[in-house]
Design goal:
Largest sheet: 15 strands, mixed
Strand content: over 45%
Distance between the termini: 89 Å
Shape: globular
Helix content: 10-25%
Number of domains: 1
Strand order of the largest sheet: 8-7-6-5-4-3-2-1-15-14-13-12-11-10-9
Order of helices and strands: HEEEEEEEEEHEEEEEE
Number of helices: 2
């Protein structure tokens, strides 16, 4: 009888362990299917996004052009709008998918002429999915355009650069579940669960703000919480959460650093207050207001 009892006990233990593994496996799969399931919602659902205005941020910015660090003002506009699944633009019918329209505008003076960069992302409000990216670059030497669409299980892109040997490039693929646009992190990471501080791996489409053709293959990056810091910015002293975004492969590729306001209530809503990245790129928040910038 004792022998039968011990045997039954070990069988039950084995079943419990197997069930535990199965639950763990399901948990991992669920995380992979929805990498932002644990990201916060309160800032996304705030009534401020429905006041008929946009969040308008101005940053003291730097970017290296012609081997020199240029100083300028960058403008970042964010609002919520319904998007048309066919045209991939703002819906004209009052129906569609709710998305953050996140538009970075940069005008940079050099000795020869001014550079103009316009980079706009659509990011889903409900799931923070990177849906669309449009980028345009204009200067006296020519124009460059890029478009990326992540829709219905397909990831497609079109690029055109005026540079010799570049021209037009297009393609499509099946996107990874944890795909994100690097250019969208300044809105997407506002929802990072700072209190839990998980380490997260994303497949990032690299920065597309360039007048040349850009890499189209997503690269694995890790998101790591660094800590709570007080920043002395042009807008004043700001309490902020610091995140490091670094390539999984390591090597010589530099990490990117983002700081988001600790205040999750309006008007701050965890807005990006500072950024430092490769190519001498930096942003330090100078002002924030809500206004209908498209009106007089």
């Amino acid at each position: 009888m004792k022998r039968l009892f011990y045997r039954a006990t070990w069988i039950m233990v084995a079943i419990a362990i197997t069930a535990g593994w199965a639950c763990t496996s399901r948990g991992v799969a669920a995380d992979q299917a929805d990498p932002f399931a644990d990201f916060t919602r309160a800032w996304r659902d705030d009534p401020a996004w429905h006041d008929g205005k946009a969040e308008c941020c101005v940053y003291d910015a730097t970017r290296e052009i012609y081997g020199q660090l240029r100083q300028y003002r960058a403008r970042l506009y964010t609002d919520q709008e319904l998007t048309d699944p066919d045209t991939k633009t703002k819906s004209a019918t009052g129906h569609g998918r709710a998305a953050f329209k996140h538009h970075l505008r940069e005008d940079i003076a050099t000795e020869n002429y001014d550079y103009h960069y316009s980079t706009m992302c659509y990011v889903g409000v409900s799931d923070l999915k990177s849906l669309k990216l449009d980028m345009g670059s204009q200067e006296d030497c020519g124009a460059t355009f890029k478009k990326y669409i992540n829709h219905a299980g397909r990831f497609s892109y079109h690029q055109f650069s005026y540079f010799p040997k570049e021209g037009h490039r297009t393609g499509q693929s099946s996107p990874p579940e944890n795909l994100a646009f690097q250019d969208a992190l300044s809105v997407l990471l506002r929802g990072y669960p700072f209190e839990q501080a998980p380490q997260l791996t994303l497949m990032l489409l690299p920065d597309q703000t360039s007048n040349k053709l850009s890499a189209v293959e997503p690269v694995p990056y890790q998101i790591r919480y660094v800590g709570w810091e007080t920043l002395d910015l042009p807008i004043g002293a700001v309490e902020a959460h610091h995140l490091e975004v670094s390539p999984v492969s390591g090597g010589n590729d530099p990490a990117m650093h983002y700081w988001f306001a600790a205040d999750g209530t309006a008007p701050m809503l965890h807005v990006m207050v500072q950024y430092e990245g490769p190519g001498g790129i930096s942003y330090r928040l100078r002002s924030l207001e809500r206004r209908a910038y498209w009106k007089r």
